[in-house]
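// run 5 | inverse folding | seed 20
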């Protein structure tokens, strides 16, 4: 169950609240001044950044795979190993 932090735009009071649904956007009224001016803080939405971090960590691996695929085929030349002559003249 996610926990959202709210901050009152009128008096600055901060509040943590369990939220049953991530789709619930309704902010609670401020318990200190009673005004419905609470705004949700984004600091508790860390799992979204975690997902992005995972993607960032995957990227270099994919780039390496792309580099391998782009290499021209000539590294292992079986004929050169046997006869000393290369199939691929320089
Ligand atoms: Zn308030």
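// decoded
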């Amino acid at each position: 169950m996610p926990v959202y932090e709210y901050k009152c735009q009128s008096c600055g009071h901060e509040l943590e609240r369990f939220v049953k649904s991530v789709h619930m956007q309704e902010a609670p009224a401020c318990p200190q001044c009673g005004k419905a001016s609470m705004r949700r803080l984004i600091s508790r939405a860390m799992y979204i950044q975690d997902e992005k971090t995972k993607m960032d960590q995957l990227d270099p691996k994919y780039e390496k795979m792309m580099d391998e695929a782009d290499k021209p085929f000539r590294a292992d030349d079986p004929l050169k190993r046997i006869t000393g002559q290369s199939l691929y003249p320089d």
